[in-house]
Design brief:
Helices cover 57% and strands 12% of the residues. It contains 19 helices and 12 strands. Helix 3 packs antiparallel against helix 16, helix 10 packs antiparallel against helix 14 and helix 14 (461-494) runs parallel beside helix 18 (564-591). The strands form 2 sheets. It has a 6-stranded mixed barrel. It has a two-stranded parallel sheet with strand order 1-4. It has helices at residues 11-23, 36-48, 50-79, 81-89, 94-135, 144-171, 174-180, 190-197, 203-210, 216-250, 301-310, 366-372, 432-443, 461-494, 496-504, 509-549, 556-559, 564-591, 594-599, and strands at residues 32-33, 258-261, 314-327, 329-330, 333-340, 350-353, 361-365, 379-384, 387-397, 406-410, 421-426, 449-452. By secondary structure, it is an alpha+beta fold.
């Protein structure tokens, strides 16, 4: 029966409607339900988890763009004071000066926005093509209003970022602009030179450390750019580490050294290709025959178990069968992992509660609790073939298997269940490959097989997300370095005459380079100190949102991924960004001839 409730936009409203429905019908008439929210989540689950972290990178990129645009326009105003004075002297009004500097930012920004929209549409084509193939829909172009909205928003961001320094240019008095020219205000930063001069460091280094205080606004913009790059790097390192932990938690069976099956892995006959539009079941992970396959009879699990116990080198093992069961409260069948023996070594990561320790217990994923409205401590009826057992929920597992539910229970709950796979841990010093070969020689005549397990690598959505995070981080770090480059170029050109005087009194090219690089070193250190905690906080905020979008909570193993050494190295990354951004203007300053620098005004 299909029901439409008056209020059905949230899980709570649907649960309330289901309770009213159950109360209005005969006792036991309502066996299971499935809401439209479950269907929607299943359809969007593949991409839903990527939205939060892509949004986080997008916000970082937007913030960095604002910082860099403001810094560039502010630098243009600072280096063009004499030009502003001349423009006002020949009749430009303050409003016309503001418009001139706004146009100086908006014209190149417009070209960049057009290029970005075009490239964005081109990059979207492969993704949309895959979506068309998966869902069998018509062509999916990027909506025209998306291009218009993105372009308008980007242009507005640039305009707002350029407005404040442009207004500063409009407010400058003509005589002051003509008199000051390119020189900074008298006395600005002298206290910093006196303070750094007392440090036990070479004079070029102390000179460079005091330089940012002559232009505090520009130094602040550079600091924010470095901090943003460090935030992106810290967040990306944490994100990729968390995704690696998720990948390891997806397949707990891979932790076992050797997998022994009751069927021959090389005797499974692949099914013929199905007609277009049909589907066929794939071979089970245990190696047994499933729908569409054929093969010899499976080995007796008791004989395989006896072979393992008699084999030298066996440390511990447990049996497992993957099957389907019926669960009261859920429509259709539910995947189940039935475990024999002590299966704690192959347990899933737990979000709450504990792993199964005996009969009468079941561990379920978060989606099971949401769909059935149950919680830890409640009892559910599980039917396997013709046997029904009432099992108490003892734990909530971390399961990223998608919309399919998988519960875990003890095999002794059902007399007819038998293991199809044995997961074995070998003794210390025993080779897993040699052990698997010996066991295979014993169980193959019985109809079974044995293989040594290899570590599983990242694949699917996790690999794609890791690659996206790395690419976006590289882009943001590059932009941060370019922001530092632009600020240091402006600062170096402003002080080229001062550098010429320093060279005239004996400063070597190497000392000149150390002066320029030390001027950004303190900014890099401060940016790292700000960026690492901010990136850590961003990771702690975004990861739970990603888990919620995927329909699950996250265990501490996935959230607590940072090591102290990692955080220290990431903090030093701020210095690396600053120094790399300043290396080009530092080299130019070191190579500039003394006479040329002294003649420059």
């Amino acid at each position: 029966m299909l029901y439409r409730f008056d209020a059905a936009s949230t899980k709570e409203q649907l649960l309330a409607g289901r309770k009213r429905l159950a109360a209005s019908t005969a006792s036991g008439a309502l066996l299971s339900t499935r809401s439209w929210l479950d269907t929607e989540r299943a359809a969007a689950q593949g991409a839903a988890a990527t939205v939060p972290f892509v949004t986080a990178f997008g916000v970082l990129g937007t913030v960095m763009s604002v910082i860099i645009v403001s810094s560039v326009v502010s630098g243009a105003v600072g280096t063009g004071l004499r030009r502003i004075g001349i423009l006002k002297a020949i009749g430009f009004t303050p409003r016309e000066v503001v418009r001139a500097y706004m146009a100086q930012a908006l014209i190149p920004a417009g070209a960049g926005i057009i290029l970005g929209v075009v490239l964005g549409n081109l990059l979207a084509v492969p993704l949309l093509s895959d979506t068309e193939a998966v869902y069998g829909t018509v062509a999916l172009p990027v909506a025209w209003w998306v291009d218009v909205a993105v372009a308008a928003a980007a242009l507005a961001v640039v305009g707002l970022a350029a407005l404040i320094p442009a207004l500063r240019a409009g407010r400058l008095r003509t005589v002051e602009a003509l008199a000051v020219g390119r020189a900074p205000r008298t006395g600005r930063g002298r206290w910093a030179h006196r303070a750094t001069g007392m440090l036990p460091l070479p004079r070029p280094v102390t000179y460079g450390l005091a330089t940012p205080f002559a232009h505090p606004v520009r130094a602040l913009a550079m600091l924010l750019a470095v901090a943003s790059g460090t935030v992106a790097a810290t967040f990306a390192v944490g994100l990729t580490s968390s995704l690696t932990a998720v990948g390891a938690a997806q397949d707990p069976e891979s932790r076992a050294a050797v997998t022994v099956t009751t069927t021959r892995l090389d005797d499974v006959v692949p099914p013929p290709p199905p007609p277009v539009g049909d589907s066929v079941a794939s071979p089970s992970p245990a190696g047994g025959s499933t729908a569409g396959t054929s093969g010899p009879e499976a080995a007796d699990p008791a004989k395989v178990r006896s072979a393992l116990e008699s084999q030298a080198g066996t440390g511990s093992y447990y049996g497992k069968a993957r099957t389907e069961v019926a669960v009261a409260g859920i429509s259709g069948s539910v995947r189940a992992g039935l475990h024999e023996g002590d299966s704690r070594s192959g347990s899933f990561e737990m979000l709450s509660g504990r792993w199964i320790t005996g009969t009468g217990q079941v561990v379920v994923p978060t989606r099971f609790l949401e769909r059935t409205g149950t919680r830890i401590g409640d009892t559910v009826r599980v039917t396997y073939e013709k046997e029904t057992a009432s099992l108490r929920i003892v734990g909530e597992s971390f399961d990223t298997s998608g919309s399919e539910l998988e519960i875990h229970a003890d095999m002794d709950n059902f007399a007819s269940a038998a293991p199809s796979t044995f997961l074995v841990e070998v003794r210390s010093g025993v080779s897993a490959d040699a052990y698997a070969q010996k066991v295979a020689a014993v169980v193959r005549p019985l109809g079974g097989d044995a293989t040594a397990d290899a570590p599983s690598g990242q694949e699917g959505v996790i690999l794609i997300m890791s690659a996206m995070a790395a690419l976006l981080t590289l882009m943001l770090i590059s932009v941060a370095g370019l922001g530092v480059l632009g600020s240091v170029v402006l600062d170096t050109r402003e002080r080229v005459h001062d550098l010429g005087v320093c060279k005239a009194i004996g400063m070597s090219p190497r000392q000149t380079m150390s002066l320029v690089l030390s001027s950004v070193a303190a900014i890099g250190v401060t940016g790292g100190l700000i960026g690492v905690p901010a990136g850590y906080a961003l990771h702690s905020s975004v990861l739970p949102v990603m888990g919620h979008a995927a329909g699950t909570g996250l265990p501490s193993r996935v959230l607590d991924v940072y090591e102290p050494v990692q955080l220290l190295l990431l903090g030093l990354g701020g210095v690396v960004i600053a120094v790399l951004g300043a290396s080009i203007p530092a080299g130019w300053a070191a190579r500039a001839p003394t006479a040329t620098a002294l003649r420059t005004k």
